[in-house]
Task: inverse folding
């Protein structure tokens, strides 16, 4: 469906060249749900925006190839890329409060896409909008069409945003932290909705999040990003069963787990992300890794295949003799 | 999120100042210099009439800016005008700013009916155009019951300053109020209360230092407003009498447009440069101070 | 309107904070009133960490602020170490506050950006005139070391130069300056990166041990809450649903809302996928909450009794109290 090759995204800042994404290769198969996991600063949002061609600004330097449905997006003009939005790819964002236009009614915002992309007239578009709203499980869609975003709760707004995104039946949906700003019960509803829609509309989905739990339950493949690169990538079941990258393991252990004993002490990842302007020579995780060796400081580890498509970027992955010794 | 700690302060130091900015600072510096040291310069007073040089164009030796049709030396007029403009601007904006800030900050911090009252008052006063308001105040304060008796100059000056101050109070007061509303909602104010700080200490230590930058920035813009207002009033004849200020020079030189235009152009240029400079400096200050708090 | 009951109150010598019949309401234009906290009672024992859990709109943050009387609640009593805060005159309340401090959700906005770290942490000491300059400086250093920051690197800088996690450490240091006996943490890690959360949670635990604090920990994150608390209180729309021992409640939640909450949390294990969504719909408006049990509009076990009569808290198993007519236990 989409393949990203060798993507680099750099920002020119007063402090120097900031490398947000370095050398990312990612395949998104048709009909699959791919999760991109990372903390803030890992580059995951920048990468997904860059893949869709949404990064703008005179200080942005993007390199690499993005191929969508056989067509090379990175070689197309801005106009042509924009034509892909809606019918080809669509994105839903993290903060539903700011992603919707506060001064326009819900119905207008949904039908705008339909009228521009699919050429519907006003009446048809409104009708279809109501259908879409019931598709995203909003009660009383007719009344909802006339409401303004400020009258809706966070969960409702997110559903509206999903309705807008799927209105033209895109083949690929990017979801950038779609539930981070929502309550946990609403999060469960929205994620289930996305899974069902994906199945019914036969879309592929890229789910960008920092929550390993979300990824575990709603994705087929996972790519873990750290400091601008993919450091581990596998099918979801394989990744959780055989974690290789110490970072992934550390991330899993540092997140409070609802199954832990109460009052337990959490395992901490010491240190901070490396400076994105002045990246260290070796592995980006070296200052925080409990298994770090000299080689990790000196040489940047490449992405290695463990067989069955499980890629990892580590000189001494978990299960390795050194790791086992400690 | 961690990248925002990469140093906002560093970005301020690296900021490039453009030529207009240097010019603006230089011009204002010159105006202040003239205001302080102007009377020590080796030029005749602005009231001295040079009968032999009437209508001299600029660059006449001894009268570098020329002489107007009445014989007044324009150069000394400019210097004296600078003194007056700076003085009036600093006093009006300073006093108006202080009063406006006091009212605005307390209104926004304590809220309730006091706030509604202050806010409405501000809005009412602001709805009257600056010039009209100043004119009305001058008319009321600077006239004597006996119309034959002239009003002393000092009284006209004081009246002028009072009316300009009243104009400025709601302008800066609103800025102070809006800024205080924004800052009072921040959690560090709740934190200060929770550690037992008195309200007046909270205002002094937390609100005022954070509101001050916005006030200073707009204060500079207000200086421009005051200078123009004063010039307009003088042009109309109700400001400083006898052509002491730049506006007064315009009033004096009204008839010179045909034969002696430099008598008008030069004060106009002085006025324009000053207002542009204060606006620009205010803008630059606002930008620089904003960045300190911003995120990358 | 009936309260949620007091069966769960312990009424012994160990109780440090006792809140009775607390009501907090906000006016929102048009004569309407938001019932943020509706006549609830609870207590906290010495050395305990009480977690107050709920989703947005349940009133937990309002509750935390009301305990500190910031602003004072509409009615109800807050008794801390024997003193009824609700009845104290302004000056005495000010000094009573030094024993209870708060850590806020947004680390950046809870610190004045114009002050240096030294000034920020010293400020509470200055307000109360504790110690002279040298003693205060030493105390500031000690506090910074305790929260894991190097004083030399940090003292003269301002909050915007630090990351969220570091700001939260500074905030915690400040709240400990007056050596309070109780700490109310309002979503202290929600605004932080996932891998930083663990650091701050461990820090809070360390500080609790070191200073012998009693804590109220407000959060929407059930997993976080489980890690830190020894008593948990679940709120929904201004009322208490369930109170008690976390191990028990997480294992066998008695209230249907608690159960839905727990089951909504995604578990990072792909072999344990959930099939159905635990809870449908949206919470009703706090302006016009449902009669009787406020959760009945979304509850799978709702009956007529639930609409007519508000359930009171009662013990359904040792250490577990629930306000429900048809509890799961």
Result:
């Amino acid at each position: 469906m989409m393949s990203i090759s060798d993507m680099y995204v750099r920002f020119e800042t007063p402090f120097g060249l900031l490398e947000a994404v370095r050398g990312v290769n990612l395949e998104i198969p048709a009909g699959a749900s791919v999760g991109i996991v990372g903390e803030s600063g890992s580059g995951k949002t920048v990468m997904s925006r860059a893949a869709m061609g949404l990064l703008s600004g005179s200080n942005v330097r993007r390199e690499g190839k993005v191929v969508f449905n056989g067509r090379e997006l990175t070689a197309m003009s801005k106009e042509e890329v924009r034509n892909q939005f809606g019918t080809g790819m669509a994105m839903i964002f993290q903060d539903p409060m700011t992603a919707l236009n506060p001064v326009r009614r819900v119905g207008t915002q949904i039908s705008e896409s339909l009228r521009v992309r699919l050429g519907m007239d006003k009446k048809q578009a409104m009708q279809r909008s109501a259908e879409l709203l019931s598709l995203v499980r909003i009660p009383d869609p007719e009344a909802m069409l006339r409401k303004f975003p400020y009258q809706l709760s966070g969960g409702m707004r997110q559903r509206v945003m999903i309705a807008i995104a799927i209105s033209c039946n895109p083949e690929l949906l990017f979801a950038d932290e779609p539930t981070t700003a929502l309550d946990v019960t609403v999060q469960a509803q929205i994620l289930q909705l996305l899974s069902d829609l994906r199945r019914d509309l036969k879309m592929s989905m890229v789910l960008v999040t920092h929550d390993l739990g979300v990824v575990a339950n709603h994705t087929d493949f996972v790519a873990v990003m750290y400091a601008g690169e993919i450091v581990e990538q596998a099918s979801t079941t394989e990744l959780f069963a055989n974690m290789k990258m110490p970072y992934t393991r550390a991330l899993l252990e540092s997140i409070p787990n609802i199954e832990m004993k109460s009052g337990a002490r959490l395992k901490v990842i010491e240190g901070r992300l490396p400076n994105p302007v002045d990246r260290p020579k070796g592995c980006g995780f070296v200052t925080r890794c409990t298994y770090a060796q000299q080689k990790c400081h000196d040489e940047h580890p490449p992405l290695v295949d463990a067989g069955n498509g499980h890629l990892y970027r580590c000189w001494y992955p978990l299960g390795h003799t050194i790791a086992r010794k400690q | 999120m961690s990248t925002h700690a990469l140093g906002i302060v560093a970005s301020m130091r690296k900021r490039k100042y453009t030529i207009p900015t240097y010019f603006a600072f230089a011009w204002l510096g010159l105006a202040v210099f003239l205001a302080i040291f102007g009377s020590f310069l080796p030029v005749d007073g602005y009231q001295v009439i040079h009968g032999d040089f009437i209508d001299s164009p600029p660059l006449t030796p001894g009268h570098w800016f020329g002489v107007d049709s009445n014989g007044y030396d324009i150069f000394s007029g400019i210097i004296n005008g600078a003194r007056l403009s700076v003085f009036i601007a600093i006093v009006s904006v300073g006093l108006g700013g202080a009063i406006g800030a006091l009212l605005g900050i307390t209104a926004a911090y304590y809220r309730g009916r006091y706030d509604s009252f202050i806010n409405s008052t501000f809005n009412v006063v602001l709805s009257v155009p600056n010039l009209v308001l100043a004119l009305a105040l001058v008319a009321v304060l600077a006239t004597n019951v006996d119309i034959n008796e002239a009003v002393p100059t000092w009284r006209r000056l004081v009246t002028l300053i009072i009316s300009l101050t009243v104009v400025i109070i709601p302008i800066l007061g609103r800025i102070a109020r809006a800024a205080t509303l924004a800052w009072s909602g921040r959690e560090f104010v709740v934190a200060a209360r929770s550690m037992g700080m008195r309200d007046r200490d909270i205002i002094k230590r937390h609100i005022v230092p954070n509101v001050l930058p916005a006030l200073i920035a707009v204060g500079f813009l207000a200086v421009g407003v005051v200078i123009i207002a004063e010039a307009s009033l003088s042009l109309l004849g109700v400001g400083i009498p006898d052509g002491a200020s730049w506006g007064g020079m315009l009033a004096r030189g009204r008839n010179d447009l045909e034969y002696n235009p430099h008598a008008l152009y030069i004060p106009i240029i002085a006025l324009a440069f000053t207002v542009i400079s204060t606006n620009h400096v205010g803008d630059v200050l606002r930008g620089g101070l904003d960045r300190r708090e911003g995120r990358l | 309107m009936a309260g949620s009951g007091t069966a769960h109150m312990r009424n012994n010598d160990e109780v440090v904070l006792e809140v009775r019949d607390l009501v907090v309401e906000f006016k929102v234009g048009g004569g309407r009133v938001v019932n943020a906290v509706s006549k609830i009672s609870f207590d906290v024992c010495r050395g305990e960490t009480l977690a107050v859990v709920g989703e947005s709109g349940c009133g937990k943050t309002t509750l935390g602020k009301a305990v500190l009387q910031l602003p004072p609640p509409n009615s109800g009593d807050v008794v801390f170490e024997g003193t009824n805060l609700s009845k104290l005159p302004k000056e005495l309340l000010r000094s009573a506050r030094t024993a209870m401090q708060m850590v806020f959700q947004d680390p950046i906005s809870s610190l004045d950006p114009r002050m240096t770290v030294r000034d920020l942490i010293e400020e509470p000491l200055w307000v109360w005139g504790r110690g002279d300059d040298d003693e205060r400086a030493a105390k500031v250093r000690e506090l910074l070391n305790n929260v894991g920051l190097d004083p030399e690197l940090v003292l003269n800088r301002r909050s915007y130069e630090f990351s969220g996690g570091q700001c939260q450490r500074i905030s915690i240091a400040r709240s400990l300056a007056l050596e309070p006996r109780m700490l109310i943490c309002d979503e202290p890690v929600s605004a932080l990166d996932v891998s930083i959360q663990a650091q701050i949670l461990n820090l809070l635990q360390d500080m609790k041990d070191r200073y012998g604090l009693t804590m109220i920990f407000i959060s929407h994150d059930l997993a976080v809450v489980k890690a830190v608390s020894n008593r948990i209180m679940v709120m929904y729309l201004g009322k208490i649903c369930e109170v008690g021992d976390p191990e028990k409640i997480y294992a066998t939640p008695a209230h249907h809302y608690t159960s839905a909450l727990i089951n909504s949390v995604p578990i990072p294990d792909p072999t344990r996928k959930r099939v159905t969504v635990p809870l449908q719909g949206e919470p009703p408006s706090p302006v016009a909450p449902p009669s009787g049990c406020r959760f009945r509009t979304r509850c799978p076990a709702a009956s007529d009794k639930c609409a007519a009569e508000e359930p009171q808290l009662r013990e359904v198993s040792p250490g577990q109290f629930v306000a429900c007519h048809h509890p799961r236990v």
Notes: Chain B has one domain: 19-45+62-293. The two ends of chain B are 9 Å apart (CA to CA). The domain at 19-45+62-293 of chain B is CATH 1.10.3720.10 (MetI-like fold). Chain B touches chain A at residues 1-3, 6-7, 10-11, 14, 296 (CB under 8 Å).
